[in-house]
Structures are given as C-alpha cells and as structure tokens.
Design a protein that fits this description.
single chain; alpha/beta; seven-stranded mixed sheet; five-stranded mixed sheet; 33% helix; 26% strand; binds NADP nicotinamide-adenine-dinucleotide phosphate
Length: 257
C-alpha cells in the first residue's frame, strides 16, 4: 500500500481474468478511483506467473471461472494478498477453505455473487420476505452468452431464503410434467428458471406466493461501467484494519445484510 500526493492510502491491485468482460472493465475502470493503482494482470495464459505478479500487491480482484478461482484465491492469500472475488459457481467448500486460509494468514477476503447495491438490498428484502411467505421461485433472465446456469446470484438468493427460514421451502410438486425440466432447477425447495436471451444483460425476479397475494421483487442490471466503483468499495473494506477471514456477500461489504 502506498500514499497519494495528498497523503491518501493507495491500494495496489492485481486483476485476475484480465481478458474477460469483467476483467477488462475492472482493469480499465479501477485506476480511475483515486486510491487504487492496478499493478498487474493475470490471464489464463499467464497463470504460471501469478506468484510473481502478486508480489507486493494488496488485493487481487478475481472474476474468472470456478475451475481457476479456488487456486487463484489460495495463491493470493499465501502471498499475503487479499482476494476480492465475484466468480459465479464457487462452492461452499472452496469458500470455507478461503476463509480458513485468510484467518490463518490474518488477512481479509471477499466473495460476492453480485457487486451491486440494488442486488444487496434485494437480498436483504428477500431474507425478510422468506420468513413470512412461501412458496418462492426465482426467474433469472440473462444475456445469451452467459456460460453457466443458474446464475451465482440466483443460487445465493436461494441460499439466503433457506438460511433465513431455517428450513427448506415447501414446494408443491405438479402432478404431471409433460415436458421435462419445465419446472426449472430446484434447490432446497426453491425452483430456479434460467432464461438465456440476447437483448438483456441481467434481470432477477424473486416471486413469493401467499394466500390470495403475490410478492414480486425484481432487480435488473444494465451495464458494467459501475462495477469498478462497487468493487472499489470491497477493496477498501477488505483493507480495513481488523478485517480477518472471508466477508461473504456484497451486503456484508456495504452494511445492508
Ligand atoms: N459478482 C458479480 O457481480 C459478477 C458480475 C458479472 C460476472 N460475474 C462472474 O464473473 C465471472 C467472469 O465473468 P465474465 O463475464 O468476465 O466472463 P468471461 O468474459 O468469460 O471471462 C472469464 C475470464 O476467466 C478466464 N478463465 C476462464 N477459465 C479459466 C481457467 N480455467 N483458468 C484461468 N482463467 C480462466 C478467461 O480466460 P480466457 O479469456 O483466456 O479464456 C476469461 O478471461 C463469471 O463467473 C461471471 O458469472 C460476477
């Protein structure tokens, strides 16, 4: 960590997945933050040089693929560099390993399925609604080039619903499903329906059924230009003195969980 000309802290950041959509947006946008300096990049082709690139950095921002994410986060922690990850599909087991490694190294780490303020508020409202209403289903509509389904956001919301209720959701099975898969995927009683179409970036709808009432909560994303600012908040948070172990979820980063 260095200081700006005005004596402000300046964080040294490495971007992993630098050739991806998110990596490019972050490598271009993070240097516009007054307290952030991008000092290196890691791509799939330069994975073997990652330890050298990480030397002297404070934070590694990582939006890649679950196959690469665990190793990258653990390598960063071993080098004393705090990972700030947004990779979808990272398992609970990997996040537990990251938490344990960060605690052992006495540094912080962040993983969040959605680096959006509205997304964090949605998750908080969903937790509240889940204590009072069921069944609940999620309909996500994402750009056609998204590689995975369901999205990490939907899985994180399903997890939040079950955690908040303290039990699985009771979903009533249909008697006859004439087209297999029509009811979507299901985790702990939460059905998730993944639409993949061009013409949209990302929309997530959480639908709570009740007795003669329906609660529909919706969050939509329309661009990537704000990610450097929202990810920068996670960088500042993980660099705060006393932050040790994994901060999970953007709500916990910005204090709306
Ligand atoms: N948390 C959030 O708010 C948020 C927002 C948007 C996206 N995401 C998630 O962030 C991740 C990246 O999204 P994206 O849209 O940037 O995807 P993308 O354009 O496909 O980029 C992924 C990057 O990861 C690299 N990569 C893939 N597999 C790898 C491996 N096995 N080893 C090393 N590098 C590998 C790719 O390298 P190559 O270019 O060399 O193939 C690519 O540069 C996804 O999981 C996505 O769901 C999260």
């Amino acid at each position: 960590m260095g200081l700006t000309a005005e004596g402000m802290k300046r964080y040294r950041v490495v971007v992993a997945g630098a050739n991806g959509r998110m990596g490019k947006a972050l490598a271009a946008g993070l240097p516009e933050q007054p307290d952030i300096e991008v000092v290196g990049a890691i791509t799939r082709a330069t994975l073997s040089e990652a330890d050298d690139v990480l030397k002297g950095a404070d934070v590694m921002v990582e939006f890649t693929h679950p196959d690469a994410s665990r190793d990258l986060m653990l390598r960063a922690i071993a080098a004393g560099v705090r990972p700030v990850s947004g990779t979808s599909g990272v398992s609970d087991e990997t996040l537990a390993a990251v938490d344990a490694a960060a605690r052992a190294r006495e540094i912080g780490a962040v993983w969040a399925a959605n680096y959006r303020i509205g997304g964090a508020v949605l998750a908080a409202i969903v937790r509240l609604a889940a204590r009072h209403l069921e069944p609940v289903e999620i309909v996500e509509m994402m750009h056609a080039t998204k590689k995975d389904a369901p999205s990490g956001v939907s899985l994180a919301l399903a997890r939040a619903i079950v955690e908040s209720r303290g039990a699985d959701v009771s979903a009533r099975p249909v008697e006859r499903q004439t087209l297999p898969g029509t009811r979507g995927g299901e985790t702990h009683g939460v059905h998730i329906h993944s639409v993949r179409v061009p013409g949209i970036q990302s929309r997530t709808e959480v639908i709570f059924g009740g007795s003669e009432e329906l609660l529909v909560l919706q969050h939509e994303e329309n661009g990537r230009s704000d990610y450097p600012a929202t990810v920068a908040r996670a960088i500042r948070r993980v660099m705060e003195p006393g932050v040790i172990g994994l901060i999970r979820g953007y709500g916990a980063v910005i204090g709306v969980d």
